[in-house]
């Protein structure tokens, strides 16, 4: 177990190293000159050269990257070219709203996904089942930007049930969280449904029923806990998909999170922020997967560590 | 002096209505207002901030030696009480006001002025405005980092600043009114280092009270402001990250007082045609021209006839319609509100037939393939497509390259990259109301260098010499002649057709019914976008 | 044929296939079907104030912000979506299969290196990666297709990898090995035929992901270049108008969702049919 976790941690670090390298390299290739951006339109060639030197942009790529890594190890993500602040400060100011939205969004996903999955499994092959599964498919087939715009139009502009975007109380959180949640719930409901059906067919359930336990009791005590196990690693994978959705949903709803920061930075080619956000997302994905994998070990003793 | 409000029928009507109402009431102090912006306020460091949303915020937190009368482009002394210019135009002596205090309570003195200018020029500050101060003696040494002081600035006593220039510069007083020339206290700058922009300390009408990055900023009234009774407002809350459309809807619901990004195109017609909101809408001229650069070094655009043909091929009226009439068609580089604008100049007419004939003469009867670069945020790609369609009418097949702003700017700065660039979204909005600002960097030889902003790569040494001569006319009684001379420089340049001037954009903004103050304050040409110091709540 | 018949028995799949067929026909015969040239900016396609026209008898789907016929743009946009869907997903499937099979079959250092790289790509926020690539490579139709493929192959590689391993572990492969069959022979005579169903399923499901990603990239302004219409960039160009001209978002939006949904449903049904053990469950 300890060996397994160590090995996974080692891989996680390697992956993060790879992510920073690739991102940094891609940014290095972008045909835009940050020094010129900083220097402004009144700058002379000498001023631009001076700034380029100060930022170390005149160094060869590997030196720039090593410098970045060195700073990263000390917790220094660099300074934004456009915002002129520490990238870590900018991200710290926005991580809270993003975590809020993510927690709420994944919460909605799980509630909708698991509920629909259970109902569909119990009523399998009925019209209700088919309808629910069709609904889950529409969710996963819709791009976030369309869903977000339509939700904003109908529920905020036309019906006035929710505020028109922005950040603040629970009323601001609901609409973006529901948008994210509904779209993401499809995978969960399908997975819960199939794993429920799996479990329902297993011997110990038949035994439990034969022992005379009520249907509801069997469902809650025996079927559900077993059926939910595959959902756990799914959450880990979901974090990555979620990050992409956040960029769009935060922009449409004006939610002051990491996604909005990333999108602004991409438009302004603010490289330190782009690298910072990508690294942070990668950390979230890697850590999410790690936690999910380890959590499954505790929940499900059947998994054999040596072979995973 | 030039008129600020253009005689747009609608605007005149709106002004007439609101003017009649406002004539009765006078400004009164007090009140909190809410202002929204979409993009982050990057920094409030006056040496660095250069964005739409932070420009007038910085002006409200800081002061410089010079400023403008509210809502106009008339230069007036600010922290300087008065100034003198030597006969040779090389020495400016500023006499400072007594008793002006920084937000930290210390009195502002001549040493602060010197320090602030030297800080902006110092390459370590990485100021985008350093280049404006190049006429001060000692600039080259300071800007190369060899020294941290400007030898051209001296402080004979605590209330006198003498600045010596290396050549006469008629724009120097404008430069001293730029944000980059704002006076900052050394101790606060040194305390916060590179984070001074997050903890600004100035002498301005407002103080920063609170800033949640990416969410909101709160400005409160500076009770010690040197101008009695200013500002009128007690507090301004800036809410950041608000989509302009959402901001407008919130304004309609009374949740917002000023939509800082103005009226987005989508809601413009709705507002314009709604009697309730018509009178809250304000229109103003910007010192802005939207143009297409024609790279004069890249064939076939190196052929004058081709460039003239392109000038005649584009239907500017239709483009103005595509953006809902929020602009007026342009025929020369200078915007109408700029001194030197030649209102008698006719420019190139819209004449596709003639354009085709010119192409034929140039040997491109079958047209040619080229590229049109454009920034990738709405409405720029749309405008580019309108231009593309017009060009295709005369046989020019322009492929659109829609890229992020920084990438377009990078492409424009290379001599053989971008044949044509539509300037929208990156267009030249003058830094100060003087025609010279529209020349050097964007049409003069100094800008036609790698990484420069002269994307047409147009370099006419004769006109550059003319420009230098015009800039040397510093005497007040020469100003009219100077403006005329500048006007001629631009219309002469148009003979070479390095640009297609497309339109001069107007700014449409809106404020809630409870806001008072002249319309011009809400579309202030210098305190862009809004002059917060003089607006008030009814 | 029997497969097709089995698929057609499901109403949702039959409807999906019908919709896909309509989109294919629209894409192929766009010049004949579209009422107007999709790039022509009509003078009377805008009101005198420059507003787009709502659906009317001249322009059935209304006009866009440049006065172009929205219906024609959507019909031509089907081309963009399909080309990217097929080409980009095709590349992704090829790369994914190559990587997955190689890693699963060769194992050892090469295999684990390939799979570690796949893990690395999995940890990348896909959209950020795609945007960064699009910004570097200067968007065009083919570049967008390539960028999406670069992002999408990863999942396929993972699935193919685990399939390959499970097939390779089966008895008949071991027997082949002991009787001295060459690796290539095993690869072509056993592995690929067994992998084919999985590849087919992913080739179908992947189109759905690809269509969505193309739309999102175009919506962010880093996708297909104007004036070439794509369902995503139609929405991008009209996004600020969506509160006053909903049709500009609604029509292309519904088209994107319907196409993506159709491929998802067909892919899902394929998986059911081709993998009997899963039948009726997933």
TrEMBL record, chain A:
InterPro entries: BPD_transp_1_N, MetI-like, MetI-like_sf
GO terms under cellular component: plasma membrane
The ABC transmembrane type-1 domain, residue ranges: 95-296
Keyword annotations: Cell membrane, Membrane, Transmembrane, Transmembrane helix, Transport
UniProt record, GO biological process: transmembrane transport
CDD domains: TM_PBP2
Annotated TM spans: 9-30, 99-122, 134-155, 167-188, 227-253, 273-299
Membrane topology: Multi-pass membrane protein
Keyword Cell division: no
Highest taxon above the source species: Bacteria
SUPFAM superfamilies documented for this protein: MetI-like
Main subcellular location: membrane
Subcellular location: Cell membrane
Record bears the keyword Calcium: no
Entry similarity comment: Belongs to the binding-protein-dependent transport system permease family. OppBC subfamily.
Name of the protein in its database record: ABC transporter permease
From TrEMBL, chain B:
Gene Ontology process terms (BP): peptide transport
GO CC terms, sorted: ATP-binding cassette (ABC) transporter complex; outer membrane-bounded periplasmic space
Organism superkingdom: Bacteria
GO molecular function: peptide transmembrane transporter activity
Protein name, as recorded: ABC transporter substrate-binding protein
Family recorded in the similarity comment: Belongs to the bacterial solute-binding protein 5 family.
Signal sequence coordinates: 1-23
Domain Solute-binding protein family: 75-447
Keywords from the UniProt entry: Signal, Transport
PANTHER family: OLIGOPEPTIDE-BINDING PROTEIN APPA (PTHR30290:SF9), PERIPLASMIC BINDING COMPONENT OF ABC TRANSPORTER (PTHR30290)
Biological classification of the source: Bacteria, Pseudomonadati, Pseudomonadota, Gammaproteobacteria, Oceanospirillales
Keyword Endoplasmic reticulum appears in the UniProt entry: no
InterPro entries attached to this UniProt entry: Peptide/Ni-bd (IPR030678), SBP_5 (IPR039424), SBP_5_CS (IPR023765), SBP_5_dom (IPR000914)
Coiled-coil regions, chain positions: none
TrEMBL record, chain C:
Start and end residues of each ABC transmembrane type-1 domain: 78-267
UniProt xrefs under Pfam families: BPD_transp_1 (PF00528), OppC_N (PF12911)
GO cellular component: plasma membrane
Subcellular locations according to the entry: Cell membrane
Keywords assigned by UniProt, alphabetized: Cell membrane, Membrane, Transmembrane, Transmembrane helix, Transport
Principal location listed in the UniProt entry: membrane
Residue ranges of the TM segments: 12-34, 82-105, 117-136, 142-161, 199-224, 244-266
Gene Ontology BP term (one): transmembrane transport
InterPro entries: BP-dependent_transpt_permease (IPR050366), MetI-like (IPR000515), MetI-like_sf (IPR035906), OppC_N (IPR025966)
Taxonomic superkingdom: Bacteria
Family from the record: Belongs to the binding-protein-dependent transport system permease family.
PANTHER family in UniProt: OLIGOPEPTIDE TRANSPORT SYSTEM PERMEASE PROTEIN APPC (PTHR43386), PEPTIDE ABC TRANSPORTER PERMEASE PROTEIN (PTHR43386:SF25)
Protein name from the UniProt record: ABC transporter permease
């Amino acid at each position: 177990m300890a060996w397994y976790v160590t090995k996974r941690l080692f891989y996680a670090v390697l992956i993060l190293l790879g992510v920073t390298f690739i991102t940094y390299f891609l940014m290095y290739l972008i045909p835009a000159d940050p020094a010129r951006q900083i220097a402004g339109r009144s700058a002379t060639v000498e001023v631009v050269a001076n700034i380029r030197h100060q930022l170390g942009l005149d160094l060869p790529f590997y030196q720039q990257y090593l410098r970045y890594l060195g700073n990263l190890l000390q917790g220094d993500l660099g300074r934004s070219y456009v915002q002129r602040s520490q990238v870590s400060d900018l991200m710290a100011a926005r991580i809270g709203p993003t975590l809020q939205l993510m927690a709420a969004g994944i919460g909605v996903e799980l509630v909708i996904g698991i509920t629909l999955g259970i109902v569909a499994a119990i009523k399998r092959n009925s019209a209700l089942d088919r309808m629910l599964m069709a609904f889950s498919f529409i969710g996963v087939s819709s791009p976030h930007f369309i869903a977000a715009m339509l939700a904003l139009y109908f529920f905020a502009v036309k019906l006035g049930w929710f505020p028109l975007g922005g950040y603040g109380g629970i009323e601001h959180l609901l609409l973006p969280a529901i948008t994210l949640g509904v779209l993401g719930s499809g995978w969960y409901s399908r997975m819960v449904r199939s794993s429920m059906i799996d479990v329902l067919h297993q011997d110990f359930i038949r035994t439990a029923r034969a022992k005379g336990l009520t249907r509801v009791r069997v469902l809650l005590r025996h079927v559900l806990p077993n059926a939910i196990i595959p959902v756990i690693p799914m959450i880990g994978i979901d974090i990555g998909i979620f990050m992409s959705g956040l960029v769009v949903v935060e922009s449409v709803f004006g939610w002051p999170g990491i996604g909005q920061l990333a999108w602004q930075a991409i438009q302004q080619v603010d490289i330190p922020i782009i690298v910072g956000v990508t690294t942070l997302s990668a950390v979230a994905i890697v850590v999410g997967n790690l936690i999910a994998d380890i959590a499954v070990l505790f929940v499900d003793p059947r998994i054999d560590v040596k072979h995973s | 002096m030039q008129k600020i409000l253009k005689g747009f029928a609608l605007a005149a009507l709106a002004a007439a209505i609101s003017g009649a109402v406002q004539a009765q009431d006078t400004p009164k102090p007090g009140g909190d207002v809410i202002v929204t912006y979409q993009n982050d306020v990057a920094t409030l460091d006056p040496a660095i901030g250069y964005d739409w949303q932070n420009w007038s915020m910085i002006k409200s937190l800081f002061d410089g030696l010079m400023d403008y009368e509210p809502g106009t482009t008339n230069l007036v002394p600010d922290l300087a009480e008065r100034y003198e210019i030597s006969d040779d135009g090389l020495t400016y002596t500023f006499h400072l006001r007594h008793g002006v205090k920084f937000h930290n309570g210390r009195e502002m003195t001549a040493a602060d002025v010197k320090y602030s200018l030297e800080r902006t020029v110092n390459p370590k500050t990485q100021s985008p405005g350093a280049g404006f101060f190049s006429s001060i003696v000692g600039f080259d040494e300071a800007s190369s980092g060899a020294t941290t002081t400007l030898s051209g600035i001296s402080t004979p006593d605590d209330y006198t600043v003498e600045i010596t220039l290396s050549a006469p510069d008629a724009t120097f007083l404008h430069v001293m009114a730029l944000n980059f020339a704002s006076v900052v206290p050394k101790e606060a700058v040194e305390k916060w280092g590179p984070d001074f922009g997050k903890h600004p300390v100035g002498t301005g009408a407002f103080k920063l009270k609170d800033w949640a990055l990416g969410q909101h900023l709160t400005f409160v009234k500076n009770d010690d402001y040197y101008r009695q009774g200013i500002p009128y407002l007690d507090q301004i809350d800036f809410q950041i990250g608000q989509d302009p459309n959402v901001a407008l809807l919130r304004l309609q619901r009374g949740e917002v007082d000023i939509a800082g990004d103005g009226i987005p195109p989508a809601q413009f017609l709705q507002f314009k045609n709604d009697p309730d909101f018509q009178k809250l809408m304000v229109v103003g001229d910007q010192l802005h021209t939207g143009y297409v650069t024609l790279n004069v070094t890249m064939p076939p655009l190196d052929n004058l006839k081709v460039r003239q043909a392109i000038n005649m091929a584009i239907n500017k009226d239709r483009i103005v319609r595509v953006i809902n009439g929020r602009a007026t068609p342009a025929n020369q580089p200078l915007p109408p509100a700029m001194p030197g604008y030649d209102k008698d100049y006719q420019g190139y007419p819209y004449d596709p037939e003639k354009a085709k004939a010119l192409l034929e003469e140039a040997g491109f009867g079958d047209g040619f393939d080229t590229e049109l670069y454009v920034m990738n945020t709405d409405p720029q790609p749309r405008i580019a497509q309108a231009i593309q369609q017009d060009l295709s009418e005369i046989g020019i097949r322009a492929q659109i390259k829609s890229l992020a702003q920084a990438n377009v700017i990078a492409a424009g700065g290379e001599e053989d990259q971008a044949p044509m660039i539509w300037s929208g979204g990156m267009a030249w909005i003058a830094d100060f109301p003087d025609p010279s600002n529209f020349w050097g960097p964007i049409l003069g030889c100094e800008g036609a260098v790698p990484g420069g902003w002269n994307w047409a790569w147009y370099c006419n040494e004769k006109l550059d010499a003319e420009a230098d001569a015009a800039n040397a006319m510093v005497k007040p009684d020469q100003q009219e002649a100077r403006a005329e001379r500048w006007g001629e420089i631009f219309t002469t340049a148009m003979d070479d057709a390095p640009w297609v001037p497309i339109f001069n954009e107007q700014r449409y903004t809106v404020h809630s019914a409870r806001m008072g103050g002249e319309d011009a304050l809400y579309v202030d040409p210098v305190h862009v976008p809004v002059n917060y110091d003089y607006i008030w709540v009814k | 044929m029997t497969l097709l018949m089995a698929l057609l028995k499901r109403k949702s799949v039959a409807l999906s296939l019908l919709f896909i067929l309509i989109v294919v026909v629209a894409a192929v015969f766009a010049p004949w079907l579209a009422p107007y040239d999709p790039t022509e900016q009509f003078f009377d396609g805008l009101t005198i104030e420059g507003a787009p026209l709502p659906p009317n008898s001249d322009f059935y789907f209304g006009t866009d912000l440049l006065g172009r016929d929205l219906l024609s743009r959507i019909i031509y946009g089907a081309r963009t979506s399909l080309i990217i869907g097929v080409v980009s997903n095709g590349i992704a499937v090829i790369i994914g299969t190559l990587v997955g099979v190689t890693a699963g079959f060769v194992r050892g250092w090469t295999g684990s290196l390939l799979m570690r790289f796949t893990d690395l790509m999995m940890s990348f926020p896909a959209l950020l990666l795609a945007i960064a690539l699009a910004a570097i490579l200067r968007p065009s139709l083919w570049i967008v297709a390539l960028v999406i493929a670069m992002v999408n192959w990863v999942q396929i590689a993972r699935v193919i990898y685990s399939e390959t391993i499970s097939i390779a572990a089966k008895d008949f492969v071991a027997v082949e090995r002991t009787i001295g069959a060459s690796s290539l022979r095993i690869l072509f005579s056993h592995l690929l035929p067994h992998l084919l169903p999985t590849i087919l399923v992913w080739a179908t499901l992947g189109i759905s992901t690809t269509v969505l990603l193309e739309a999102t990239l175009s919506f962010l302004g880093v996708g297909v270049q104007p004036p070439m219409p794509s369902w995503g960039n139609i929405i991008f160009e009209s996004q600020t108008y969506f509160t006053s001209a909903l049709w500009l978002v609604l029509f292309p939006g519904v088209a994107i969702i319907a196409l993506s949904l159709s491929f998802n449903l067909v892919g899902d049904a394929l998986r059911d049919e081709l993998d009997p053990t899963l039948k009726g469950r997933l």
